[in-house]
Every structure is written in C-alpha cells, then in structure tokens.
Design a protein that fits this description.
- It contains 18 helices and 17 strands.
- The chain has helices at residues 29-34, 37-43, 83-99, 132-144, 175-186, 231-248, 261-267, 269-289, 363-376, 401-412, 420-431, 436-446, 457-472, 485-505, 512-534, 543-547, 550-574, 580-603, and strands spanning 11-21, 25-27, 52-58, 67-71, 75-80, 103-111, 117-123, 149-154, 191-192, 195-196, 215-218, 221-226, 252-254, 293-297, 323-327, 347-352, 383-388.
- The strands form three sheets. Strands 7, 8, 9, 10, 13, 14, 15, 16 and 17 form a nine-stranded parallel sheet that branches.
- The longest helix is centred in the C-terminal third of the chain and has 25 residues, at 550-574.
Length: 613
Amino acid sequence: MDYTLIPPVKTINANGEEKICFYDFSPSMSLQAHCRTEDILSDFAIELKGEKLIKAETDASLEKDGYKIDIAENEIKIIGQCDAAIHYGFCTLVQLALLNDGYIPAGSISDSPDIHFRAVSDDISRGQISTVDGFKSIIRRISYFKYNVYMPYIEDTFRFEFCPDFGKYSDPVPASEWHEICEYAAGFGVSVRPIINLIGHWDKNSKLYDFRDMMLRNGDSVTDVLDVTKKEVRSFVCKMLDEIVDAFGRGVIHAGGDEVADIKKVFGSEKGGRIYVEYFNWLSEELKKRGCTLMMYGDMFLQPYGDYGFDFDLVHTLNEDITVIAWDYALRDSYSSVRFSQSGHKFGISSGTWSWSRFIPQLEVSFGNSKQFIAQTRGMTDIFVLSGWNDGGCCLREEMMPGIAAGGAFAWHYDDSITFERFLRSFNKMYYGYGPDVSDAIKTVYDYDKHFNLDSVYDYAEIGGILFREFWKDARKPTNEQYDLAEHCSELITVIGEAEEVLKENKPLRFKQTYDAFMFDIRRLMWTLMRICVIPSVAFESREEAKSIVDDLIALSEEFELIKKENRRLWMRLNRQSEWNYLESKYIDTEQSLYSLIRYCKYGKNLSLEKYI
C-alpha cells in the first residue's frame, strides 16, 4: 500500500496485507451529518454507492482536530474530535483510495495535527478576485489538505458601505457575499479570517483623489501608507473595523503592517517606531471592543531582507495579546524569525508559494521553504500561514495548489520526511490521477530554471522572474543577456516541448481547472523562450538580417494574441472582471510593440540597439 498522503497520517496499524475496496462503501447518514461528502466525492470524481457503510461520530475527548478510523471488511467508522476532524478522516480515506487504485488497508488509523492554526493567505488585491463559486472551490480544496483557516488578503477589495469610493475601480466584494462564503467554509472546517492592511500597501486607494489627505507624505510625494497620526484617519479605520467585524464575525483580524518603510523615512527610526507600535496597540484595543484579537506581520521588527524597519527590541512594547506573524519566503538553513519566540508574544510563521512575478511557481523552493521553516520552529509556534502572493498580477491562482499542499503537509506533521520528488508524485496521483510518467513530465516543467546550470538555488529561482519580465518587455528593447539566456532557451524549448506533449496526451481525471492553468503557463513559457531566441539582444548588422526574422515575428504576434484570449477565458471562469482590464492592457502594449518591431525589421534604416523606427 502507498501511504504517502498529503498531509501524512501519524499512525496506521494495518492488518497485514489485507485490502478493502473503498468503492464497495457508501457514506451513512451519520457521516453526512458531519461531513460534506457529496462535494468531496464530486471534486475527486469518485462515486460511492456500495452497500457497506462509512459511519461517523464525534468524541470531544480526542486531541484537537484529531480523529481515528477503524476499517473492517463490512464497516468503516470515523471518530472525530469535531466535525472538521471527521472531514479530515474522510479525506484521508479518499486519498488512500486514490493512491491505491481504489483500495484501502484493513486496520486502524490515528491522526492529529502538530500545528492547530493552519492557514492559507490568498492575494485578492493584486490580481484575480474570485467569484463566490471560485472562493468556495478554493476553500474546499485547501480543506482537503487539512487547512482550517482561509485568509483573503484585502487592500481595496472589500466593499465598505460607509465609503463607496473605497476600491471603486477594483470591484470589491460586498459583506453579503462574505457572509455566504464564511457560512459555506464552516461546512469544511474552515474559518475565514481577513488580512486587511490598515496601514500600508494602499497602492491603489492612495492614487484616488478622495484619499490623498489620508496618506503619509514624504516631502511632496504621496506614499501608500496611511498617516496614522491624524485623528480623521483613525476615525476612518474605526468605521472600517465595524464593517469588517460585521462581515467576518468575531475572531482574529490580521491588520497587515508589513513593508511600511516610509514611516521610518519620514519620522526616523526612533519616532517612527513609537508611532508604529502605538498605532497597533491602539488597533488592538479597538478590536477588543468588538470581540476580536489582532494579528500583524512582524517584518518591521525583524526584516527578512534589507533594512527598512525598526529595532527588534521595539516588539517588547507591543501589547502582549497581539499575535505577530514572521514571514520569510527564502529557502534557508537557518531562520532568524525564531527570535520572536523570545519576545513573549504569541507568534506564527509564514512561508510562500513562490508564485509571484513569474508564470510557473518555483515549487521546489516553496516546498523547501515550508519544510525547513516549520522544522526550525517546531514546538515554538502553533500558527502557520502559507502565503500566496500575486505581485505582477499575472499568476493564475490555480497554479498555487501544489505549494499549498506542501505547506499543509508540514504544518500537520512537521516531522514528515517526504522528499520533493515523492511529494510531487503523490500530489499528481491524488490530485490529477497521474502515474509516474506524467508526473515526471510535470517535474521537468517545474525544474525548467535548473537548465541554466547555476550553482545556487537562489540564482535559478530568479530565472523565472527574468523570463516573466521578458514576456512583457517592449519587443523593441534588447533582450536580457544575463545567464546566457538565448543559448539555454534554445535547448529548453525541446525539453519543455516534449513534456508539454506528454501532458497534452494525458488529460487529468479531476481538477481540470488547475491543469488548464498549468498548461497555459507552459504555453506562455514556451512563447517567451521562442521570443528570446528570435529577437537578438544586439543591433542588426544589416537590413537583410532584420528582414530575415519577420516571419518568425509574425508567428510570435499571432500566438501572443491567442495567449491573451486564453488568459481571458481562464480568468473569467472563476474570477470577477476586476483587474482583467489592467492585465489586458499589458497584453495590448506588448502586442503593439511586436507590430512595431515587425515594421522596423521590414522598413527600418537606422540599425540601432533599441529597435525603433
């Protein structure tokens, strides 16, 4: 039997080699009373219509979120500490059946999590904002990997009744929809708790006329940071809190607080630090009045990169009931964030999906980041947040699912020793229904940046960002010559092309929306590789040379138009209109530069490095 579940199960006591066919069973009424079995089976494309029953009951004496399963020839029984635990137990049975061609082991299973606050943060402010059905799909799937908190990251994407202009160009989600989403999530053991940035990252609202007087100024420049020294700003924030708490209910509210370097620039380190801490202490008290607690990012006290924050000792002046989240998305042997364990504050850690400013996520770095960060802080924290950011606004959220699964695995069981290769094979078998051959083709795509023959994981992880920028770059500007791009891209076209053909010939049995997103970004990657090979990084030596690439440029421009249309189709399937117009404009700008380059190659007389007529 294959027991490489995601997350792994703590204890399986199998009765020798005895196997039982899962498809001979059906969910009993007792199971359906505690678990949304119909939705789970539908997502995994499974039918259970056998005469034998899967029963369930709760037992509050079990460890939090813990469950036990007894598997016998004629009956399966799930005993869970709560409804969520019964849901986890049923998902374990489903995964076992999918990994073993419909069979599960006779015997018993006992399981419980190492970390009890297991969250996924979802950036709905710099890219796609899901439809209600899209949110529900995300919530179901993170629950299958035993997450119990969903944290939408909100900058300007909540519709405030008291301020209709808030996010007026971003199609914000109204409270009525959040009520529906929260209620639905509870059926899968998931609590929806917002991250609403109440000090920084007001990138879009700060560009609206009505908000300019609320923003901190650095000389004549308007920053994207709220000027929290103003009474009218705090009054505005209180009104925000009223509506946020009404929409999401009582519980933890994450107020952001990350990367607000402008406070230090404007006020200096000492005064800026005092203002920053006093504001968050004030926020904490305001949330207490509303029956909530405050969570915030900790990077202004301990920066994972650069030097933009305050002295670490300032953290000791924060209210003790504030929870600090230490984020660090690097793959490190040692994480300095463990210092928060000595601060006296409740703290959590956050790794990342490595999906930002690139097309295909750097999954191996994401896997290692979650594994090593959790392992180093084991026993120090009971809070884990897997962050899926969308810097650049172009990564399809669907592609984050493998990284989400990896974070869920280590948050549930931080001693899990699974390798990246074994994890990927297990994920692809359960999620898509793929065997080793197709899984290896997927791994080839995830490993594309390794073909640039770099020594450091940090260097090859950067390749994705370079290629991302080349995709959108004005075609008339020279190609980046770093890492000998053209030479390696030529070799990579063949390697990725072969893997792409394998995937085209093997459609998935389930979760086709994730497959479509992955295939789409393979297409964008292949287009970028071909563009780099076609457009020289140097000036043409002759008009004949310039004319010789016109046909290839026309082919690139035609494919680019098709890519844009496919991106729109995938976007609209699960997301609102918002932000698509911005992304479409980026496509149009790049497309127009391709047409201009074609004209240059046909008719240009001055052969310069930047290829403008």
